[in-house]
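Journal club prep, notes for RB
We'll compare a predicted complex against what the paper describes. Inputs for the NAP case:
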Amino acid sequence: MSEQEAAATNEEPKIETPTENNKEVKENGTGESAEPVAEEKEAPKEMRAVVLNGFGGLKSVKILKKPEPTLNEGEVLIRVKACGLNFQDLMVRQGAIDSPPKCPFILGFECAGEIEQLGEGVEGLAVGDQVVALPEYRAWSELVAVPAKYVYKLPKDISHLDAVTITMNYTVAYILLFELAGISQGKSLLVHSVGGGVGQAIVQLAKTVPNVTTFGVCSKSKHEALKTANSPIDHLLERGSDYVSEIRKVSPDGVDIVLDCLCGEECNKGYAILKPMGKYILYGSSNVVTGETKSFFSAARSWWQVDKVSPLKLFDENRTLSGFNLRRLMYAQNGADYVQKTVQEVFKLFQDGKIKPLLDSTWALEDVAEAMQKMHDRKNVGKIILDPSLEPKPKPATPAKGKDKKKQSSEEKKDSSEEKKEEEKKEEKKEEAMTNGDSAGESESKGKENSS
Ligand SMILES: NC(=O)c1ccc[n+]([C@@H]2O[C@H](COP(=O)([O-])OP(=O)(O)OC[C@H]3O[C@@H](n4cnc5c(N)ncnc54)[C@H](OP(=O)(O)O)[C@@H]3O)[C@@H](O)[C@H]2O)c1
């Protein structure tokens, strides 16, 4: 068993408590050092949280006891009942996003729950309100303090679970389709990772417009499940196949809209398949995720593979290129009000029965590594959710005890570090092969997936 599988399945979930040597638990959720506590002061109350101890693999993710947050002006305190796991969380864990915070910090961008306390100056929200929030990190804990501008009151008929299934994914999908792509009757659309959270949101929202044709690409293993779930994809295509030729068989002129969350070589394919007046929108870079930890090579390759297109070319070819990043819009570009309005549109579509979120699975906080592994292994069909009230899954007992156990664990360590080295060598070889234009790396990883 590989190290990452062991992390995901065998390792007992640990709730670690503060100790002298465990420096990170003395820090608050924002990663800043806390003031030394006066001896006579009452110990702060604690809560469970999913903490990233350092950028890297699944082992860097820990369930720790942290001090309950205190409120600043303009913030609300939410008792969390459900959290959304998004692909972006995998990238954050690896340190593969721009300007990440300093470790340790609490992970998560999406949670729903009940307001327990209001900070000074908060208007329009009240204690007891059921809400969903999109904070900048810190969502995966039992309690979170969030600026009110990122908190959305839930209508009565939207549960916490529904809220974290729809809010991030459908808000992104709504902006991509209705704001940026300007989708209208009769248009055609190509969507990557169509079996995932955002992918499903896109095809469902697209089908609220008459006569739209959807082409969806995803791993073959998801096709049956998507058909069974009646997902509104007109042409389901296989990841890694020559999907461009498949699309041209149905629509020789190409498509009107390409929504690309992969980047790298998919950018060029997406641009090339646009009809005149077509729109290509980049909203993710999943292709930079290869192994369990960040690969500088994958990031460089993804950047290098993208053709640089001049506005003169766009002018001649009647095509539009654009990009979208919700995180940047909300936290760095003053987009909170705009997002607030879009979230209300999404709630309305849900209440009108026009969208039906697809839930993949729900996990205890302690099982977050397993949940992340599932997404990394491309096995989720729809959204993955964390529920702080759930009991962790029972883990298989470790048979060895005492000395034998010590011996065994050091052997396991040796085995797994050898396995890891072997994996890393393979990864390097694969990357080398791909730089040289050889597709062996690709077929190797495909073979691995098929055999799993
Ligand atoms: N711009 C924004 O504001 C924004 C906001 C949210 C999400 N996004 C982007 O939207 C995409 C989907 O996000 P999501 O949260 O809904 O996740 P998701 O689609 O549920 O993510 C998991 C799926 O991604 C696909 N995938 C593609 N490349 C992968 C890789 N290198 N490793 C593992 N899986 C890979 C896999 O499906 P297949 O194998 O079937 O393709 C996997 O099942 C991501 O690229 C994300 O960054 C962007």
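Talking point for the session: Residues 86-88, 168-169, 172, 193, 195-199, 218-219, 222, 239, 261-262, 283-284, 286-287, 289, 324-327, 375-376, 378, 380 surround NAP (CB under 6 Å).
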